[in-house]
Amino acid sequence: MHSTYSDGEFTLSELRDIFLRAGCRVIGVTDHAESLDAGATRRYVDECAALSDERILLLPGFEYECHERMHILGYGVTEPVDSCDPGTVIRHIAGHGGVSVIAHPRDAFFDWIAGFDTLPDGIEAWNSKYDGRRAPRPHTFEFIAGLREREPRLRAFYGIDLHWRKQFRELHTLIDADIDAISRDVVIESLRAGRFTGVVGSVRLPSDAAVSGAQLRRFGAANRRGRRLKAAFGRAKRITDSLGIRPPAALKAQLRRLF
Prior knowledge:
The protein has about 260 residues and is an alpha/beta fold. It is about 40% helix and about 20% strand. The longest helix is centred in the C-terminal third of the chain and has 30 residues, at about 215-240.
């Protein structure tokens, strides 16, 4: 999740209300590290604490931007790091007791990631903002499964990457933990140990990326349909831009629900 502390459209209070009504117990907020100075970070952490209670936990973290615009989530970590090297950022997150996850990895990054001396705790197998709401890229699961042969502790993660008010937000993570004792430590340990499942509708996705071939084929077909639709809207936007036509903001917000 992203809030108005960086490039999100929801305040932390609004996020709390939305996901409390949806029956969620934890909100993993990962605002962009580059957007917050020391003072803003203190306010961010303090507000997450003030909005948390026995019903819901707002877990503050950072999303760090590295070389080539690779983004790494630090669940539970809000300490700045003076480096854009992915390995350094991964070790920084581990050193502060957090969980490191490479967010929405580009296909072009796969070989680069495979060569890392230090692998993260996880990689997003489905980011519903980047991959679309219909389905993830099936080859991301295959990539993660391959990395797990080298590092079994690495997990497949699932994230909404929420920025916009009119954005799909039905992809959740079901943590296998005592819901009467939700805390930062419980959440972090559950994520690190892979005791969670990605959930969207009737689909259940494991943390070990072990998805059947039939499911991957269904994902592939749905993802391709979504990408074709997005490409069509992209072409339409380029045409309207060339004509100097600006679609109303309300229309753009509604179109985001399609992807």
